[in-house]
């Protein structure tokens, strides 16, 4: 039996509001973030889920509990936290000013002091952007394309094992991670170039097939339009 997976991006956080790099580092949801999530939670309140999961970062955990509390048709027990679905790791840049970080990455990619991440990726491609991030990181801890791809494959494998027998599940993850999943598994992506960044509280829907294959079928959708 195939399992339908509703990926929800966490709500806006303090670091989102302050334009700081936020990967594995964490910051609390803002009032706006919570209010926006309440709209998503209400829109999904009549959707039955067999289980709910989140990444192990607090902004995702807080988000999934809002989804659980609002749902009127599901009986969800303890929510399992999955570190495999954490945000992309930006290494030494975690918590830094976001435009200053993009500038350093652009310089490492050889294109000059650009601060618009979309323009950087459009020029060098998403894979070279990942490599430049690791190169620019003074400690070279940031995830590159290979490391992130291996983690995504591992994440889907873990989810496949957990979801056996489930018809539909909800999983709260993060913007860059969900976007990278879509680049790899969405048939409307060519797998090479960047796509739009998902909104806070948006829903991306995937199908996890019984044989372990995975595909994205809807991306960055307002929950009210599901």
TrEMBL record:
One of its GO terms (biological process) is regulation of pentose-phosphate shunt. One of its GO terms (molecular function) is fructose-2,6-bisphosphate 2-phosphatase activity. Gene3D superfamilies: Phosphoglycerate mutase-like (3.40.50.1240). SMART domains: PGAM. The lineage of its organism: Bacteria, Bacillati, Bacillota, Bacilli, Lactobacillales. GO terms for cellular component: cytosol. It comes from Lactobacillus helsingborgensis. This is Histidine phosphatase family protein. Keywords: Hydrolase. Substrate binds at residues 9-16, 59. InterPro entries: His_Pase_superF_clade-1, His_PPase_superfam, Phosphoglycerate_Mutase. The active site is at 10 (tele-phosphohistidine intermediate), 87 (proton donor/acceptor).
């Amino acid at each position: 039996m195939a399992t339908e997976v509703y990926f929800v991006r966490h709500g806006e956080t303090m670091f989102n509001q302050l334009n700081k790099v936020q990967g594995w580092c964490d910051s609390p949801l803002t009032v706006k973030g919570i209010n926006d999530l309440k709209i998503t939670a209400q829109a999904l309140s009549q959707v039955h889920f067999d289980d709910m999961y989140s990444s192990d970062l607090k902004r995702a955990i807080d988000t999934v509990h809002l989804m659980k509390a609002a749902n009127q048709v599901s009986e969800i027990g303890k929510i399992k936290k999955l570190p495999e679905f954490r945000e992309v790791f930006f290494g030494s840049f975690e918590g830094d000013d976001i435009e200053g970080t993009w500038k350093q990455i652009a310089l490492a990619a050889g294109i000059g002091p650009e601060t618009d991440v979309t323009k950087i990726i459009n020029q060098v491609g998403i894979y070279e952007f990942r490599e430049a991030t690791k190169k620019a990181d003074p400690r070279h801890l940031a995830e590159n394309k290979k490391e992130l791809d291996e983690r995504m494959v591992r994440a889907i494998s873990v989810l496949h094992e957990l979801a056996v027998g489930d018809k539909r599940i909800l999983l709260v993850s993060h913007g860059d991670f969900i976007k990278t999943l879509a680049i790899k598994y969405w048939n409307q992506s060519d797998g090479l170039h960047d796509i739009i960044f998902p909104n806070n509280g948006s829903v991306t829907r995937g199908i996890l097939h019984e044989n372990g294959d995975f595909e994205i079928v809807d991306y960055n959708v307002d929950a009210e339009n599901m």
